[in-house]
Amino acid sequence: MSITLYELQPTRSTRVRWILLELGLPYESIEGPDVFAMPELAAIHPLSKLPALRDDGRPLFESAAICTWLADSHPEAGLIAPSGAWARALHDQWVAFTLSEIEAFLWHTARNLFVLPEEERVPAVYPQNEAAAKRGLAALDAHLRDREWLVEDRFSVTDIFVGYAACWARWLGMTADLPHLVAYTERLQARPLCTYRPDVFGP
Ligand SMILES: N[C@@H](CCC(=O)N[C@@H](CS)C(=O)NCC(=O)O)C(=O)O
C-alpha cells in the first residue's frame, strides 16, 4: 500500500493530512508552492489544484472525496458510517452543505483577496459572500448548540471536513456572534492530531 499526497499548508489539503494522521497511514508528501506546476499534479487533478492523492497508484482529487475514501477504506478506525447507514447520509449532508452554503463563498472571497491577479480582484464581493457564508455558519452554530460533534455526537471525518471551513471562517472574522461554532473550532484544535494550527487558523 502506498499513498502520495500533493499538498500545501494551510490549504484544503490539510484536511487530508489530518485524516491520514488519524488513520496512522504512512504517506509520501509532495509539498510546497512548486507543486502547482508539477506534471504529476496535472496528471491527477484536471485543474492542477490541491489536494490530490495517489492511493496505490490510483489518482483521486477533491478533499471531500479523498477524506471520505480514506475513512471508508479503513472502517476499523470508526471515522465514518458505512454507505446505507443513516449516519452516512448525515455525513453526506454536512459535507454538501459545507461546500455549497459556506465554502463556496469563503473561496470566492479568498480568490478576490489574494488568489487572482490584483487587477482582476473585485473587493465588492466581500460583504455579499460574508452574508451568504454566515447563513450557513449560523445553521452549523445552531446544530452544535447541544452537541459536540456533527454526526452521532462522536468525532468523525465529517468534523475533519466541516471543521476546516469553520476554522477558515473564524480566521476571516465571520464567527464572532456564533459561540457554539467557535467552541467547536476550539474542540477540534485541542485534538492531538489536528492540523488546523491555531497560529494559522487563529481568531
Ligand atoms: N473543492 C476543492 C478545492 C480545490 C482548490 O481550489 N484548492 C486550492 C487550494 S485550497 C487550489 O489548489 N488553488 C489553486 C488555484 O485555484 O489555482 C477541494 O476541496 O479539494
Describe this structure in words.
The protein is α+β, with helices and mostly antiparallel strands. The chain has 2 domains: 75 residues, Glutaredoxin; 105 residues, Glutathione S-transferase Yfyf (Class Pi), Chain A, domain 2 (Up-down Bundle). The chain has 7 helices and 4 strands. It has a 4-stranded mixed beta sheet, covered by helices on one side. α5 packs across α7. The protein is globular, with a radius of gyration of 17 Å. Glutathione binds next to loops. Glutathione (GSH) binds next to loops.
Strand and helix layout:
Blueprint: E1 3-7, H1 13-23, E2 28-31, H2 39-42, E3 52-55, E4 58-61, H3 63-72, H4 86-115, H5 125-143, H6 157-171, H7 179-190
Parallel strand pairs: 1-2
Antiparallel strand pairs: 1-3, 3-4
